[in-house]
Design a protein that fits this description.
heterodimer; A: 277 residues; mainly alpha; MetI-like fold; two-stranded antiparallel ribbon; 13 helices; 72% helix; B: 340 residues; alpha/beta; D-Maltodextrin-Binding Protein, domain 2; 40% helix; globular
Chain lengths: 277, 340
């Protein structure tokens, strides 16, 4: 029985080793090397890249990334929860609505980001409409700021919040709500004291699925932020391109991974036996 | 359905395997050949060309540095020719295989970075200056004009550390390739002071916004500026009074190439008058090929944006490879600017 289990797990192990552990080992080795003048790495081994991580300049960028990703995740939760609740109770139309949530994935994220840029620019649809309605006289600076970056992140990752929330809300026992009503809870307090606590695993899972990719985002800050906001993902990218400092880029991305893993483990522990997903 | 597609593809695969045509691998910048360039060379030489494009020197470097990349011909910028040579990645050019080198503009027959053209054949070149709307009065003529309060929110700089720090250095009267930490730090402060006026750091994608009038002035490469000016007569290009940067992209044959003769033949083909002229007409880039230039319509040949006068060119500075310490300080300053 055990041998059978191992046989079935073997392909997964092979894939994991080749495509995850091996590249990870390469990155770890790079992070301990010296920067090659024109990219790449060279001898001797050094801890310099790791020491540089403590530079306040990079800590500020890390904190900013956490703040932007945190705000984006919170907005996703505010928008995603009512939507997931609505879909979970939509009866026969449920599948249609779920499809609609996923439809944006049919187009490349890059193309969709450019579409947003066309909407938000000064001569774009949003500003033209506001001015035509007489609501604003001058075009608003909607693009190339932190607000635009957060909008881009929320738009891009909202489905990752909605789907796990839907999964928990859909499984929720309706009888519990009836019981709450019998015990005198109005709909708001039933929501606060029954629905939300019971959907905690979905909230946790959705938040993790949104927060982690937001933290490492580099396309959105680059395009929607017009290169004026730098997040940790852009910093890593720069090390491998213009800065040609592969060891530091490797150290940065490993550090980010460690931070994310520590956070995840803390969450899993808090989640306890309910499980994550 | 899938199976049918496979069956249709099968004969094509077989014919691929059967073809004994020599294959040349060319890795070039995007928008650097005409639609007909590669097919015409294939027809003329009987060779088969695998052609791919890159968007930055770093992207190309990362691939060819292994010395086993599978490419035969690549197009590094001028400041990378010496480093590539020092890393032993280049093969010495056989000039007898490139008779069309004589078509080069005299300016490019003995360039700083490779005075004997032993390793590289200059291909395209360009400058960086200010693309602006004629509605702006007075018209910007110096880098310092891009620090003007009136432009707040309507001005952009390139998303490129070399160009932004270069413009700041020139504004302060320092050389573009400065390695002096004090000069570099002062340039970094200039960039941070300018940042609150900036709409964004944008490369070629700003073109449409300048044409639309959203952006009134932009630090821009001459090639991209020319494309914008072709679309809108309301735009003009200035070569800043303090000086400006120059770059040239050069065809080189990699040492790893297994078909050096064919590689040389391709470079010779690019430097031919007709092929060169077609490339310029398609890409709107400034060519090093004087024989090709002679075949161009007057408007293209005499464009003051692509081919500034010798007096203007005297203010230009070529980018050079920098020592690691200076490069590192520049990277840090760039992160500081972006994070400010």
């Amino acid at each position: 029985m055990n041998r059978l289990r191992n046989a079935f797990l073997a392909p997964a192990w092979v894939v994991f080793t080749l495509l995850f552990f091996a590249p990870l080992a390469v990155i770890a080795a790079y992070s301990l090397a010296t920067r090659g003048t024109y990219g790449g790495v060279s001898a001797p081994a050094s801890l310099e890249s790791w020491v540089r991580l403590a530079d306040p300049l990079y800590l500020v960028i890390l904190l900013r990334s956490f703040a932007l990703a945190g705000v984006a995740t919170f907005i996703c939760l505010l928008l995603g929860f009512p939507l997931a609740l609505f879909i979970a109770r939509a009866g026969a139309r449920r599948n249609l609505y779920l499809q609609l949530v996923i439809v944006p994935f049919w187009t490349s994220f890059l193309v969709r980001t450019y579409a947003w840029m066309f909407l938000l620019r000064e001569t774009g649809l949003v500003n033209s409409a506001l001015m035509a309605l007489g609501l604003t006289r001058e075009p608003l600076p909607l693009l190339y700021n932190n607000g635009a970056v957060i909008l881009g992140l929320v738009y891009g990752y909202l489905p990752f919040m909605v789907l796990p929330l839907y999964a928990t809300l859909e499984r929720m026992d309706r009888a519990l709500l009836e019981a709450a009503a019998d015990l005198g809870a109005r709909s708001w307090s039933a929501l606060w004291r029954v629905v939300i606590p019971l959907s905690a695993p979905g909230i946790r899972a959705g938040s993790v699925l949104v927060f982690i990719p937001c933290l490492g985002a580099y396309l959105t800050p680059d395009l929607m932020g017009g290169g004026k906001t730098i997040m940790i993902g852009n910093l890593v990218q720069n090390q491998f391109t213009t800065a040609r400092d592969w060891p530091f880029g490797s150290a940065l991305s490993l550090a980010l991974m460690v931070i994310v893993m520590v956070l995840l483990m803390a969450l899993v522990r808090r989640g306890g036996e309910e499980g994550m997903l | 359905m899938k199976r049918r597609a496979f069956l249709v593809a099968l004969p094509a695969l077989a014919s691929c395997a059967r073809s004994r045509r020599p294959r040349l691998n060319v890795f070039n910048w995007s928008n650097y050949v005409a639609p007909g360039t590669v097919p015409n060379f294939e027809a003329e030489s009987g060779a088969q060309v695998r052609y791919a494009i890159y968007e930055s020197n770093e992207e190309m470097l990362a691939r060819v540095m292994s010395g086993n990349s599978g490419w035969d011909v690549v197009f590094p910028s001028n400041y990378l020719v010496s480093p590539l040579r020092e890393m032993g990645l280049l093969s010495r050019l056989r000039r007898e295989w490139i008779p069309n080198l004589s078509n080069l503009d005299p300016r490019f027959r003995a360039p700083d970075w490779d005075p004997q053209l032993d390793w590289s054949a200059p291909y395209m070149w360009g400058a960086c200056g200010i693309l602006y709307s004629r509605r702006l009065t007075p018209a910007p003529a110096r880098w310092a004009d891009l620090w003007d309060q009136r432009l707040s929110g309507r001005v952009t700089m390139l998303d490129d550390p070399g160009e932004v720090l270069g413009a700041c250095l020139q504004k302060l009267g320092h050389p573009i390739n400065s390695t002096d930490p004090a000069q570099l730090r002062a340039a970094g402060r200039e960039a941070i002071a300018q940042k609150r006026l900036l709409r964004a750091y944008l490369n070629a994608e700003v073109r449409d916004q300048v044409v639309a009038g959203d952006v009134l002035a932009a630090q821009m490469w001459a090639t991209t500026a020319q494309q914008a000016i072709d679309v809108s007569s309301n735009l003009a290009f200035a070569f800043p009074a303090e000086g400006f940067s120059l770059y040239a992209d050069n065809a080189v044959v990699l040492r790893e190439s297994k078909r050096p003769e064919l590689a040389h033949r391709f470079i010779d083909y690019l430097l031919g008058p007709r092929a060169g002229a077609d490339i310029v007409l398609a890409s709107r880039t400034a060519t090093t090929n004087r024989a090709a230039q002679a075949l161009l319509p007057d408007a293209v040949r005499n464009s003051p944006t692509l081919y500034p006068s010798p007096e203007v060119l005297r203010r230009g500075e070529w980018f050079r490879a920098l020592p690691p310490a200076a490069q590192r300080l520049r990277d840090r300053l760039w992160t500081e600017i972006k994070s400010a």
